Every structure is written in C-alpha cells, then in structure tokens.
Structures
1.
Amino acid sequence: MPFYDEIYEDPDIRSILMRHEQAAGHAAEGFAVASGKLGVVMTTSGPGATNIITALANAFYDSTPLLAFSGQVPTKLIGNDAFQEADLIGSTMAITKHNYLAKNVNDVGRIFKEAIHIATTGRPGPVFIDLPKDVQLAECSLKSPIPSKINLVGYNPVSFSNAVKRQVKIALNIISEAQYPVIIAGGGVLLANAFQELKQFVDTLRIPVVYTLKGKGVLSDDHQNVLGLIGMHGRKRANFAVSEADVVIAIGCRFSDRITGDLQKFPGQQNSKIIHIDIDAAEIGKNVPVDLPIVSDAKLALEEFNRQIQKKIKETQEFPMNSWWYKFIKELKESSGIPNVTTSGKTGKILPEKIMYELNEILEPDDIVVSEVGQNQMYCGHYLNIRKPRTWITSGGLGTMGFGFPASIGAKVAKPESEVWLVAGDGSFQMNLAELATLKQHNIKINIIILNNQYLGMVRQWQELFNEKRYAGTCLQCKNGEYWPDFVKLATAYGFKGLRINKPSEVSMALKTCRSSKESFIVEMMIEPESNALPMLPPGGALNTFISRKREKKSIYDWYRRLPRSESEIADYKVEISKEDAFSVYFEKEVTT
Amino acid sequence: MVMESVSEYVIVLLVEDHPGVTMKIAGMFARRGHNMKSFTGAQSEQKGLSKIVIKTEGTKEQVEQIQKQMNKLIEVVKVQVLQPDNSVIRELALIKLLIKDDLTHQKILSMIEIYHGKVLDANLKQVTLEIVGNSEKIDAFLDIMRNMNVLREVSRSGNVALLRGTESVFLH
Ligand SMILES: Cc1ncc(C[n+]2csc(CCOP(=O)(O)OP(=O)(O)O)c2C)c(N)n1
Ligand SMILES: [Mg+2]
C-alpha cells in the first residue's frame, strides 16, 4: 500500500492493475518478451506474493528478465506467522535467479539497482524482492539512495573472452569440413538480440536452421534456410535435418528432452559433432556431450564468427558455403509447405490445421502471436509463419497453462501498434479468464482465438495414443454432452463481442472480423474434439521416429532416400553457384528486425 | 558406454556472509540430486566472506556441473574443486566413550594413543576425546570403538581443506 500510494500520481510509471497476481506476473513476462526490456510486477504480501510463484518459475525456465517485488509484514513480525506473512525468500529460492529481503530502507536503492542488473544481464531471469511494510514507510537517510556503482563480487557474467576467438576459429574449421551441418537456434538468440548476426552467418554459410519453441522468430520462417521447429512436435524436415547432421551448431539452446528425443540417437554420439554456444556454462555438457563449447553471449559469438568468415573470404576470395547441401535443403523446404486443409474432421468440425493455414494468410509481419499451452501451442509452433523476432510468445520450459492470455496483454502494452493474437485452448483460457476485465478497464485490444476441442487436448492425445483412449480427467464436457462456459456469452459479460464458428469455410471470415474489431474480440472455433497435434515423437523416441498421419508418412522417407551419402553421390549433387550469386547474398544488408 | 568412475571431491566455496546463503547452496545440491557427504561453513580470512567446504561424490562430469551451478549463485564469489592429491583435507571428531571395566579402559587409552587422539574430558565412567585427521582415519577409529561396544556419541566437524603449497584458491 505505501508503495502504491507513492506511485499513485507518478506521470512516468504506468501501472496496470490485473485481476490476479499470477496473471500480472505473466503479463510482465509478455511485456518483457515483446519489448526486450525488463518486465516488472508488484504484489501485496502473503497470498498476493504466493500467487506470483508460477510466473517466477515460468520466467526462470524461460530466462525472461523479470523484476518482482511484494510487500511483507513489518520486519519485527517476520518469523512470527503474522497475518498475511509468507516466507517468500524460502519459496522463491529455487525459481529465481536471485532474491532479496530488504531489511533496511538504506539498502533499498542498492537492492533495486542490483536486482535490475542481475535480472537483465548474463543469462536473464527473475529476481524477487521482499519489501517489509516498515521499510517501505521509513525515510532513507542516505544522500544518494541509489549507489552509482554496482558491487557484486560474486556476479561477473561472461559475455565474451579471448578464448571465444580461438574456439570460433576451431569451430569454423569443423564447419568447413562438414557435409551436413545444421544450426539449432534457441531462445538465447532472442535474449541476446542476435538476429542480424545470425542472419548474416546463415546467409554466408547457407547452413539450414531449425529452432526450438523459444527460438521461433529469431530468423523469419520465410527464410529459405529455415526448416522450422524441432523436437517432439517439430517439423519432420527439421527433425530429419538434425538426425542426419554431422555437425550441429547449437546457439542459446539447452537441449531439453523435448527437443532431443532419445539422447542416445541424438547427434554428438557417434560420428557427428556438436558445437554449443551458450552464455551459461552450466548448460554446456549438461544434457548432451559437446565437442566444442563456446561460453559467450550469442550476439558477440556470432559477430566473431562473421568477422573471421569475412576475413577468410577476403584472403581467399572463396566463398565458404556448402552448396550441394544448401540446394538439397532448399528443395526439401520447397517441397514441404503447409497444405490448405479444407475438409472437416470426422464429426464435421474444423480441423486445427485449417485455422493455422488461415492465420498465416491474415498475419502481418508485425503481428504478435501468443499461444497458450497444449495442442494449440504445438499447432502454432509447428505451422505458423513468424517473420520477426519478438512476435512469438509462449511458455516454454515450464509449459504453463494460463500464461498466454495475460502474456498477450503485456505484449499489447509493449507494442500497442501491433495486432496481438492469442491462440488459446479452451482449458488454458479458463485459467486466467478473469483478465477479460483488465482488457475492458484499460482498453486493450487482443484478438482472442479459442480452439475449443472440449478437452484438455494434449493430455487426451497422449491418452489416445498411449493409454488406449482412457480419457481420464481430460474431458471438459458435462455428462449430458453440454459444454460450458459459452465463450461468446462470456465475451458479452465483459462488454465485448464474440463469435462461434463450426465450419472450415467460416475460419477466414471470423479471423477478419476479429482483426477489424476495434475492441477485443473472442472467436470460439469449434474444432474436431479428437484432433491430434501430429506428427509427434513417441516419448523417448529418436528424432526420426514419428507418429504421423498416413498421408504424411511417405514424404520424409523420400528425402531420406534421396540424401546423398557417399562422396560420389555428393559430387553428383553438387551445384555451381556463381561468385556473384554467392556474394550478392553475402553483402545483402537487409535485416529482419 | 563406459562406466564412469565415481570419486570423492571437496568443493570449497567463498561466499558472501548473508543469511540464507547456506540454504541456497544446500538447496541446489538437493534439487539437482547431488550427493553431500559433509558440509562445513565459517568465517574466512576475508571480511564479509565465509568459506564453505562440501565433500561430495560423483563422476567428473557431475562435479563439473556442481561447480558451474554453484558459480551461478550470485552470493558465491569463488568455487574450487579440490582432490586429495593436491590439497590437505582434515576433519575433527569429538568422541565420547563409555568405560565398562579396566580392561576396556586400557584398550581405549592405547587406541587413542595410536590414533593420536587427545583426551579432553575424562572421569571413571567416560572419556571424551578429539581426533583430527582424514575422514577414513576417523572412520577406522570409530569402527574399533563400535566393535568394543564403548561408543556413546560422536560429533564430527565435516571436512575442511586447503590447497597444498603457497598457492591460494581465492581472492587476494
Ligand atoms: C497449469 C498447468 N496445468 C496442467 C498442465 C498439463 N497440461 C498440459 S497441456 C494440457 C491441456 C491443455 O488443454 P487446452 O488448454 O484445452 O489446450 P488443447 O491441448 O486442448 O489445445 C494440460 C492439462 C499444464 N501444462 N499447466
Ligand atoms: Mg482444449
């Protein structure tokens, strides 16, 4: 209360009151991802503070810069189980980058300065500050309450070192000998704002790029080298490229089990090599054995790569790209676009692939897409064309249902000029739907698309595939087959308009209506209840073992067969690229940011 | 796959003297499933910094991972991994033994002498002593006492360690 009172009439601070603290935390995360700045969230003590635990954990596993602070009972009462006291220092320890209990008002300036520094530098993350009420009220006796310098002896995040230069040189040697190199771009590329550097690197060497869920958007999905999402729900062509790779260059990704599949069959085990660039040394070698570790900020490492490549080109006048592989990948990409599925599902409802197709038609490059968690998220990650960094926002490491809606609010606040689309599952949306009131109160426009399959779809999908369709605890229908809430009525209850559609032919029109609405708008799309997010890897399966629909089975095996393996096959595949061609791409200065 | 060899390591941490630091360190060990065989902490030679010594067991990769995770804690200033061949590692044990009869009393006293123990408190019913050494030596002494059925209580300090030679691990 004292803190809020202080900022009540402050012209520089815009505070948005949310309906639930968890949502406030996720909104701050959405703001941080969309803007590239620090997100800030403030709550009251006790239950207010425990409500942001999920957001802190979410920010921790997605390395989102977040500053959270909450009130606390007066210092004299701490430890006495006072009214609305909760041990937030203990509770947030494992899910924050750092936390503070401010016991003395003279420390508050220093603590905030340090907290912001810690949250935004190195591998970013959430920092939590506990602010007892008496500290909030006390007068600071220092002349300059905020110290000019930060003095954290134990915190010196490496961003670059001379060792990096040497390792980059070795890396370039390894890459130059590779026949099937692949880049995995992770969220670290986004956190480092290394978009131009990555694009230049890729455009020079023409190495195919696959991305993790958090790396989507760091290089446009339209880019000819970008093969898409990898992992459990990745694009087949992306998983295919990684499983055939002889050199994997991983940039700012942590090889989570959702992207590697079976580790024993993941590159790095036999004849292939892994080069791993990450700012967090603890991520290197944690999940996969790495041949060449590069502990560095992704932007600085890629700059060094580009510098050394440029130097070599100048010296040798030779263009260092692997042209046959580039041609192969380009053909692979061109042959595996996303079809427009116009048919209905078996019960006559819309298939989610259709919605993705139409969304791609309507999305402008600056539009921001935020997903919830579940099948809806995997459809988006798999199919959507995201063309600019920071226009794709999703909960990755923690997979938090209920993240998407409030995060979309934060994103809209960060980028009021952009259209913000929320693609939500009916289950996830209900986790934080109270924030519809926030939209109304603050006049925030979100295009809300609910994919209503009347199930906790992703879990149901696992039950269908691995538990003989025993849909325990995943059906959201009533016993009599009715489904509540009525999302269109819900929109009306909060003073908005809404629309429910049942047919594939209505999708495009509904999206357009939503976009052109002045206020937030809910489109409830009734999708095929038992539609599945496919292809997928069976849990524990390798990257080249897919569960997929019959009609999709053939293509990837064709490519597998076509992949040249012996030297003579490779030679046959080789293409000549004229120097002009090669250099024209290389010197192209167009940037996607 | 080759079975990776597991050995003992001593991790020495220089940490800021803040409340809750030990909790963060212990929490990190517990959360990531690392093994903690002993834990000691006290003031270091530098003002405002404490030294924490943890004995752990694991493969080289596991210990490297611990080291990296420790380094990430903001209040941890420095991390060093020591092994028996490059360092001195010691432990102190306070041991209370019960005297049942003259014969055991004599045996106890001679064992204490062999193990270079030092009697701190004694009367006709008990002997309280200290033994300093590596953990194996203390284990061995305790085993003997257990077998003689005279061991009443023990309080061990956990390991403390320094690098050999003039080299120091930490800030100057
Ligand atoms: C807070 C939370 N609770 C539970 C889960 C486990 N979970 C993952 S996906 C999913 C189903 C999501 O259902 P819905 O939002 O309707 O999306 P759909 O998969 O149907 O598209 C559940 C329950 C989770 N990820 N987060
Ligand atoms: Mg659903």
2.
Amino acid sequence: MSGVHVTTTINGDEVDFVCPADETLLDALRNRLGLTGAKEGCGTGDCGACSVILDGRLVCSCLVLGAEAQGRKIETIEGMADGEKLHPLQRLFISHAALQCGICTPGFLIAAKNLLEMNPDPTEEEIRFGLAGNLCRCTGYDKIVRAVQAAAKEMRGA
Amino acid sequence: MPLDTSYTGQKFKLVGTRPLRPDGIDKVTGRAKYGADAFAPGQLVGRVLRSPHAHAKIKKIDTSKAEKLAGVKAVITSADLPDYTNGDRGMFDILENCMARDKVFYDGHAVAAVAAIDADTARKALKLIKVDYEILPHVTDVDEAIKPKAPILHDDIFTEGVEPKPKKPSNIAKRTEFGHGDVEQGFKEADIVIEKTFKTEQTHQGYIEPHACLANVGPDGQGEMWVTTQGHFVYRNQCAQLLGMDISKLRVTASEIGGGFGGKTHIWAEPLALALSRKANRPVKLVMSREEVFRASGPTSSTSIDVKIGARKDGTITAATATLRYASGPFYGMWAELGAMTSFACYDLKNVKSVGYEVLVNRPKVAAYRAPSAPMAAFAVESVIDEIAKKIGMDPVEFRIKNAAKEGTKSSYGPVYGPIGIGPTLEAAKNHPHMKAPLKKNQGRGMACGFWFNFGGQTCTSININPDGTAVVAVGTIDVGGSRASMSLMAAEELGIPYENVRCVVADTSSLGHNDMSDGSRVTFSSGMATVIAARNAIKVLCQRAAKMWDIPEDAVVWEDGCAKPAGANAGTFPPLTLKEIAAAAANTGGPIAGHNEFVADGAGVSFATHICDVEVDPETGATKILRYTVIQDAGKAIHPSYVEGQYQGGAAQGIGWALNEEYIYGKDGRLQNPGFLDYRIPVCSDLPFIDTVILEIPNPNHPYGVRGVGETSIVPPLAAIANAVSNAVGVRMTHIPMSPPRILKAIEGGPA
Ligand code: FES
Ligand code: FES
C-alpha cells in the first residue's frame, strides 16, 4: 500500500496515521484509529451516522478523505463527554429515551451540539431542519427533538 | 409443579417507572459495539459479487483470475456451499438466496464472494470474476406475475392449497383462506356494498445499520461469529446447518443492533462470511453497503388487494371479503397468509372470508417487516370501511365502534378473543381532543385501526444472584430498543431489590439454551415472563437458604420486600434476612444461588391500535404534510412507558414514510433504480410533527404483569389513517400507496390513482 501520511488533531490529541489516498476519513477513524463511534449507515452522505466536526464545521466523514484531515482539528463522539461528565445533550438523550437502537445517536449528538453552538435558542422548526441530515429509523424523532430542546434550555441556563 | 404465571393484578413498586437504560452511556459516548465495530487479529475483508440481472441462468463462473490476485485469500461460489438441507425446501430456499446456484432470481442476488487483505483488493478481485449468464425474461410486478404468459420462476412449484393439484407450474406458490359464515348470503342482506382494488409498493425496513458480521472458523471446525441480528440462536442453527457444522461448534455473539424491524430475522451474507473464513483460515469481516442492503436484503411485499364490504343502513356490516396478492420475492413466504389473517381481525363479523396468494417475482426475497403484511391489508380494509361509513352517513369512529370485535368475538382468522383493546382504543379516539380540532382548507383528518397477533415462543433465561446481593439476568433475546431496562425492572420487582442492582445482559449462544427470534413483539412478553419465572425460582432457593440459616422448615419462610421472613406457626421469630445477607452466606448454605427458566411462552396477547392523523395536501404540487398525529394503543402493561411510547412513535413514523414516500422502483430491465437513502426517502426530522401517544392498559391474562407486546401494531394503522386523511383532504379516494405527489396530482386531476 502506498499511503499518505496524515498528522491531525482528534479530540485534542495529535495523532498520525497512514492511509490510501482514496480512503475516507470515516474508514480511517474507524479502521486505523479504532474510533468506531462514527457509524457508516450509507457511505453516500445521506444518513449523518458518520457525522464529525472538522475545524468547527459539521461534516459527513464518509464524504471527506482521510488525507484531508492533515493539519486540521476533528471532534468525534468519543471526545464529547468531559471525562466522566457527560455533555448535557448526552445526558438528556438518555433521560428522554431519545435513543432506541442507538446507531444514529453519535451522529445526532454531534449534529445537535453543532446546531446549539450556532443557535443556542432554536425553535422546534429550526431543530427539525437543523437535524434533517440525520436519519433515525427507530424513534420518529419525537424524543430526539424534545431532548435537544431540553439541552438547549439547560445550556442557556434558562 | 409449574409456577402459576397468570395475571395477578399486583401493585408495582418499579414496573411502570422510567429508569435510565443500562446501555445508555455506552450508546451516547460511541462505546457501544455494533455489527461492524468488532475486529479480530488477521481479519480479512469479505465482499460479495451480485447479479446485475433480474433473472438469468448461470452458465459458468470463472474465478481463476481473482484467485491469482495478490492479497486474495479465498473466493467462493455455490460450489463451496454444498447442499446439506436434506430435502427441507425452506432451508434450501435460504441457501439459494444466500448464494445463487443454477439461476439468479433478482438484481442483487449473490453469485460469488471473496476475502482479501483489504477492501481495495477485495473490490478488484470481484471485478476479475467472470460470470457467464443466459438472460431469461423476468417479472417484477405482482399482478403481471400471475398472468398466464408471465415467465415462470421455478418449474417445480405448483400452487399449494388448491384442489385438485395443478398440473402446470405457477408463480402462485400457495393459496390460503380464512373466515366463517356465508358471505354470499351476507352481501344479499346488505343495503350498501362497496368493492375496491388497492395497491401498495414494496418498502424496506430501512434500519440505519447495514448487515455486518465477523466470522471466524478454525481448521478444527470450530467457529465463532459476531453479528448484528434479531436472533443469534436462529442464525447459529441455520448457519451451522448450511455449512454442515455441529451446532455446538458454532458460537454466535449478538452485537448491539442498529435496528432490525424484522429484516434481521433472516440470514443473508452470514453463511458466506463463515464459508470464506473456513476457506481462508482467517477471520473475515463482511459488511454490506447500503446499496446491497436495499438490493439484497429485507424488503416487504408489494401487494394488490381487492376488498368488498356490505353493510345495512343501521351500520351493521353483513359481509366482508378480501383477496390479497402479496409478492414474496423469488421464494415462498407466508406473507399473503398473514395479510389474510389480519385483514378483518378488528371486527366482529358474521360472514367473512379472506383469501391470500403468495406470488413469486424477480425481486429480493421478502423478509418480515414490523407486523409483517398487516399494514397493507389494513390500508385496503380501513379505506373501504371509511367509504361505507360515509355512504351510510355515519361517523367513521362510530361505525367502527358498532362493528368492533370484543371479548368472545370469533375472530376472522379463527380464535375467539379474550379481553381485547379495540373498543377502548376507539372510545379513546372518539373522546380525544384531536378529533375535535378545527381543520383548514386543503386539510383532512383520517383515522384507522390496526391489529397484530404478537408472538410468544421458545425462551430461556437465567438469573444469577451474586455474592454481594446484586443480580445478573442473562437473556437470549435481543435488545432492539431498551428491553434490557424492562427485564431489569421485572427482575428487580420480583426480587425486591433496587433496579440499579440488576444487570441484564444478552448472553451468547453457548451460555443459554435456544431462544427464538426477537420478533412478533415478543421480547418483553416472553423474555419478561421467563425473567419473572426465573426470579421466582431464585426466590425459592433464597427461601430455602434462609430456612437453613434459621434451621426451620422451608415452608415456614416467605419472601417479602426483598427479604426472607419467617411465617406460620412453626417458624419461630427471626429478624428478616435480606437478599444480600443470604447471598453473602451462600458458600456455607449450598453454593451459588440462581433461578432459571426455559419454556415456550404461550398466550401472547393480541394487540389493537387506533390512529388519528391530520394532513395538508398542496393542490399544486401534490405534496402532503403531516400536521398532527395521535397513536392510541393497548400495551397490556407498559413496563417502561418511555420505550412503549418510543415504539408507538417509531412505528407511526415508519408508516408515514411508507404511506407518502417510500417505494422500490424497478426499471424495465428488472433492476432496482433507487437503492440508496437519497432516492429511497425515509422520513427525516423536518417531515414530521411530534407524535402524541395514549397508552391503554388492558391486561393480558396470560402474563403475570399483563404484558401484551407493543412493538409492531403501531405500523399497522398509518397507511390507512393517512390514506383516509388525504382522501378527505382532496375529495378523491386514494387507492395506491405510497401517495407520492405525482399519484396525488393524478388523483386530483381525475385519473385513477
Ligand atoms: S455514512 Fe456518511 S452520511 Fe451516511
Ligand atoms: S435509535 Fe435506531 S436509528 Fe435512531
């Protein structure tokens, strides 16, 4: 394998990996770095299960090349909690039963965190459109939207 | 003596509360391990070569070039999967579906597979396999497939269930019939008779996690498999049979499952992964792409259904018939049969008949999809029910209440009902504020009822009491949406210890006896009942140990609030012994304390739901928006109400997608045109409103807590409820699902839809 050497920052840690030039960031995260929290639901940018934050922007890691991570900053679900302390979204997803099978959950949490960073006080409609890139087949989204509303409120200190 | 597990009506301390689920933290931190998240030393990547043709003879497969490619460790075809099915046609169909033998039957049918050192090499190897096909005429439409000139898929299938036995092979694999009374006479007594034909398109379960497994078979013939499945015991049994292995030599561990909805009750590529691993003598990880999931796993039937219902002016239904044609893919399935059984199950009918035809077509093998076959039948029946109510001038809810089945009704599929919830869900709908909310222009309201049997089945469960007084519940059913929380609640309730002191795990196939699939909404019912019985068995042991510690007779000990207490004349007076104290002393009183249960869980409680839905249809584009949605369903008993609500909401959302958008689209070439989430559009967050739920609890007399099972019924009414709502909004009866914008426009413009 003639690979590309990539140095990047993931969840605050500097890491190195070598991957083929055409390998996706999702595959690199999962298969080379053991970060399997990002899931592959489609591989074509349609389900959001692979969501990560790249330099502050929400991306589908299945549509980004591993090589593109060079010199950038990546946040994944594995870095969302602060040690033992869950992020409010994580805690409220559990208490609101916003997950059933949970395969979509890492993607939703990453997308919701990004949404609330950009818009701390979203309306229901803004939440629904903000999360429209993430598919969930189990919940009908009801409890997901309620969990995000509760997290927004808590994070605003309201 | 078997324990009495009938309904007790006891007051609960924990059951019915909403504690945090035990797998929550793992699932919000990315630590939970699903099918594709396991790795083994030296693992290879497995990939499957699939047919581009809908129907073709395989003349020759040349794998020699692929085998020579550096990095390829194994290539398999059907020659590597000899037939061990011993004349069992059902298993042979599974074998043939996993890997085509003489013919391919659908676009996406597997023809060969490779294992290579990486994905790139595996992909290249697939390109080097040369398959020589002789293309045959194909048929993908359910109505076309039963026409006299249709290409025949199997020349050894003669329609079962007709007398005399047909002489010519047919694409109708089986005919089934249900009902009672005299429908001809019943139609004569009717003042109004309405007859209509309906169609529904094929949909996919659409679980977000593709099929994935990690298989490892060693040269000693022992194997292990990590797999996403709704039933690891059944996967083990079937894979072992297809590979000619002893069942004991194959250990299957179920991963966390990223959705199944019935689609993961069937084996697909798992035997291929095992065969590749055996041939390569290395672990093989095989993960389907989304395109493969659509083309080669899952879908439900496309259908064509005729319904005829007659009623008197006073609103009494006098007769009802349905003829249901369900496509089952290229292999026999009991899909039309289930449709025929469920079609009229909501009603108390004197004269009723339903006939099902299993139709073979060149599409992927149909798999169970949440209350399989019931939503389509309900769509057709509940649409005609609405039409009749309208013709008579009766409110659709009142009309249904008048004809609803009740305790003692002989159901259209045979059994006589015990206590059931159809009447109460209808009454709740009638009184729900949703029914009275005002509607605006281009808006419509619809409602519909649904039924599902719910299953029981073989179940084996163990509870081990640990030395520190905590307990582990080992179940063999899969946790698809929070059932470990429900099991822990039930075990804690029985043992009288805190919920947090119980840990529920899904055990692998070598740790417990056989468990049937996690299907038919059976997990909380059957594994729950098994957990209750196992806990009561453990309590018996705990009482025996307390008796020993006190040196009094065993029958002088009772269990109350998590403690053994002396009771009766010869008991003496001792302070209660807690479970923790008895567990700590176990080493000196007889060793480990456990309770087990293995049984066939009988007496699953039938389940009914009524849904109400408001829609707005844009008359210019034909697009439909769901404005408001209410689910009312009988749970028997909601063990963890949050996850019951979740099942109601999730089923409704899947039904909404099915009703409005989702469909398999085949080209003239017999190829699936939309095998991806972009073109096969499942509902996203912005498509839906909040989904209101009402949980009714009419106890199932056959379960100690009254549980019925809640997972499936919620997908039965939506197709019909939304079709009724859209029909009311546009003023034209909708008869073809999905009601996509072009179909709605056509209906508005006066064409048939
Ligand atoms: S896997 Fe990346 S969007 Fe679906
Ligand atoms: S919880 Fe299963 S896909 Fe969202």
3.
Amino acid sequence: MIRSEILKEIAPILRDQLVVCNIGIPSQELHAIDDQPTNFYMLGTMGLSSSIGLGLALAQDKTVISIDGDGSVLTNLCTLPTIANNVADNYILMIIDNGSYGSTGDQPTYTGKKTSLAGMARAAGCDNVVEVMDVDTGPALEKAIAEQKMTVMVVKCDSGNAKMPVITMDPVVIKDRFMKAVTA
Amino acid sequence: MNIDKKITHDLVANDISFVTTVPCKQLAGVIEEIDNHDEIFHIPSNKEDEGMGLCAGAWMGGKRPAIIMQNTAIGVTINTLATLIQYYRMPLPMLISYRGELREPVACQVEMAVHTKALLAQMNIPTYHFHKQSDVEELDMILKYTFMCNKPVAILTDANFWGGYGDQ
Ligand SMILES: Cc1ncc(C[n+]2csc(CCOP(=O)(O)OP(=O)(O)O)c2C)c(N)n1
Ligand SMILES: [Mg+2]
C-alpha cells in the first residue's frame, strides 16, 4: 500500500481525533480524502509534525495523532528523546515510513536501508513503540487510541503518491478552525 | 528582586505556562527559577526549531508558550519562524541571551551576534534589547504586546544585562 491508500483506510478513525499532518503530499492527501476542522495541515516546516503534536497533547486532554514521515522524523530526530521523556498518554506519533522523501519525488531515505526508526525511538526511551505493516494500520491505530498510552507507530509501506490538489486554505484559517475544534 | 525572579514572575503573571529552553550560560539562573515554579511546565528541547514546534502545539492547545534560547539559535530557527510561527500567526515570546556583545569573553559568539539584529529585522520581528538591569521593567509590557499582536517577539538580553561573566 502507498500512503494515500492507508489514509483512505484510516480516515474514519482519524475523523474523531485531533490530527497534526505532515508537510507536502501527506497533508494534500488527507485534505482531499477527508477534510476536517480537527486536522491541522502543515504547509511548510518539514520535521515539526511530531513536535507540534506533542506540544498540543501536553497542553490539553484530547487524543492527538501526529502523522509524520520517515524523512521528516530523520530531519528532526531530536524529537524522539523529547517525546520519550515527556510522556503524554493522549499522544500517538504515527510515522508513515515509505522509505522515501515522497513529496519531493520518492528519493530514498536511510530507513529503506539500514536505519530503523522503531529502534531509534526505543533507544531514545519511548516505551510503546510498534512497527506495523501497511495493511495492519487501522487495527493498530484503534488499539493505540483505546489504550490511552503514549505510542509511537512506525507504519512500513510502499513509496508513492496520489495526485491531489495543493491546499489553498489560508494558514490562519487552518489554525483558527483547528483551535475551535480543539476547544469544541 | 533579582532579574531571574523578576523574569519568571512576569511570565507567570502573563499566564505563560509552557516554556521550552535550550540553555545558555547566561540563562542558567532563569531556567532554574522556572523549574522552581509549578505554574510553568518546563520542557527542555534539543534544538530550538523543535522547541518552536512544541510551543506552536501548546498554543493551539490553549496554553501561552515561551521559548528561552541563545541568539545563535536565530540561525537555527529562521525557517520555522517564517513558515510556522509567522505564517500561521502565532504569538511567541523569545527570551534570547545575546551572546557576542560587550563583555563577551568568547570570540566565536561575536560571529552570530553581528547577524542577530539584521536577521530579526529582515524577519520583521519586533525586537527589544535589554542592556541594563532596569530594562527588565519593560518585560511585562513586551509580553502583553506579544499576545496582543500574535507575533514572535525577540527580547535580546546581553552580558551587561546579566551582570557580566565575573573574572574571565
Ligand atoms: C527544510 C526543508 N528541506 C526540504 C524540504 C522539501 N521537502 C518537503 S516534503 C519532503 C519530504 C518529506 O518526506 P517524508 O517526511 O518521508 O514524507 P513523505 O512525503 O515521504 O510521506 C521534503 C524533502 C522542505 N520542505 N524543507
Ligand atoms: Mg517518507
């Protein structure tokens, strides 16, 4: 499966949660598949989806899912120790690990080679780290939400992108409706 | 009141309850003071752009954030300031130790000091420079201003403000 197929499958699960979505095609795909006020789309700032999600989870009680990418986590690896040492049980970091910089044309990242993000998360001190195959994403995500324990999910999938339009919504509108959804 | 206590007092008085830090020698006292205050959740970050991401999330979750960092971090955070904090229009007080100014003992610190104000000006970031201890009196107003206008705001605090480095 490629990222967009996973997002399509888990859209009904994501719909009820606060979601922070990674820059580029991941946000475009989620926006096209199931736009929700509970989605915060990143339009730039590669790497910070996990950090924004953690800050949000620590600041309020609702469940927060950060959808991240392997390339983005690799560029902000220091997020893993911060997550490990500041446990928020309403926080799920879901890394779509397609082994590539998908948004920029599927150039390979090191996670398709010798590097394991699950291993790095565990070494950073994260307690609940699960690596799942693309087809198992839905049940694994539902389990993580139900458990109410901070979880890092590494979802292994194929590289590839669906053709979706860019997001033209103004960033301040994205933020404003998201903040209203957070307090709703 | 010493300046570490005064700064922390003003943060608390302005309802700032989420603070991320990357240390600088000059900031050691204020970071320690923040750790003594239960009203503030202190989350150390490993890199300042990561810290700004945490602050953006905390803001959207209903908390008033602040970041405490060294001026060298301006070089680390330009992209995050432009594409996250400014683009989505979020408030972020940045208490910044201004290394490489008068009374600086480490020459390399001057190399980012000479770019600090130019970069902040290029970014249209409101910038205040604390040079004397009494300048801290403005902090309360600066914090109110930051949350009024929803912008990142820089408070540069140099060695003279912090009382120098002693005999180095
Ligand atoms: C600082 C910076 N460098 C490079 C880019 C270009 N860029 C945007 S998305 C992206 C790939 C992200 O890859 P990943 O996180 O694995 O997500 P995927 O698209 O594969 O799901 C890159 C390199 C950028 N936006 N910012
Ligand atoms: Mg990828």
